[in-house]
Write a structure and sequence with these properties.
The complex is a heterodimer of chains A (140) and B (174).
Chain A: E1 16-22, H1 26-35, H2 46-51, H3 61-76, E2 81-88, E3 99-109, E4 112-120, E5 126-135
Antiparallel strand pairs in A: 1-3, 2-5, 3-4, 4-5
Chain B: H1 5-10, H2 19-22, E1 28-36, H3 39-49, H4 59-64, H5 77-80, E2 109-118, E3 127-142, E4 145-157, E5 163-173
Antiparallel strand pairs in B: 1-3, 2-5, 3-4, 4-5
Classes of the chains: A alpha+beta (140), B alpha+beta (174).
Chain lengths: 140, 174
Amino acid sequence: MTPNQPFIDDVAVGQELPVVVRNASRVQLFMYSAATWNPHRIHYDVDYARFEGHADVIVHGPLQGAWLSQYVTDWAGPQGRIVSLSWQNRASALPELDYEFRGRVTAVEGDMVSLDVWEQSPDGAVLMPGQAAVRLPSRS
Amino acid sequence: MTIDQGTAAGSAPPSLIPAHTMALVGTRLRGPVTAVIAAKEAQRYAQAVGDLNPVYFDEAAARSAGYDGLVAPPTFVQYALVQGRPIEETRTDGLFQGDIPLDLAVQRTMFGGEEWDFLAPVLVGDEITAETRLASLDQKEGSKGSFVRITRETTYTNQAGDVVARTRQIGIAR
């Protein structure tokens, strides 16, 4: 087993997940649009994004969702399995700013761990709240 | 005739959902469409997200993690099913026209979030079929006025007939 593998035996309600910071460059926004065949101009055309009322080009909601998914699967380790994930995009995120991902264990039942996970804006507000469930291996 | 202010304030706001749009709830919006999960596409997606988990890139790592081969990032499956379209079919905002637009009395629709159930891993080489239904349309009253919560549910089924994932995508139209 790899050292970054958590076991169900060691997880307790209230435990906090390590904080991870994500920051999207404009190049990343472009590459994500390309990889997902997404031609929406608000993600690469600043003038058009401002025309729609945004401060700048904006980070794709599903890219932040994919970051949240990665936050959960990285924590669950190679033997862990993500079972469910949901999130709500409350407002837009901008490139070249630091967004923190945080999480907390809310329930442990059998081999299943329930998590509250969320993304915070640079000002500390919860930008994208979510919930996840993962299955973890046991030490025995 | 006098209008009772209390009654006026308490009356229901006008509906943003025409009856012919409400009649679409429960019906199929898209599909079935089928695609084979390609390693290169799944890996480009993972790289664009910044998720370099070895189980997406190294078959030995995937097998030692308990998978039967290279696995795709959990949320990739919906992009594997995106149909290519000519650029001439894009609108001013860049998005493609069509896709059975919902007729609602709103100005714009924003991405509101997603709910996923991951029922089985999606492996490179799997043949996945997707079908999307309009699950619900709910008018809500928020601090910035009325809006419609649109829920589209997509089911992803593999070549063995097993449902591998289900997603409910939330749109906020106001």
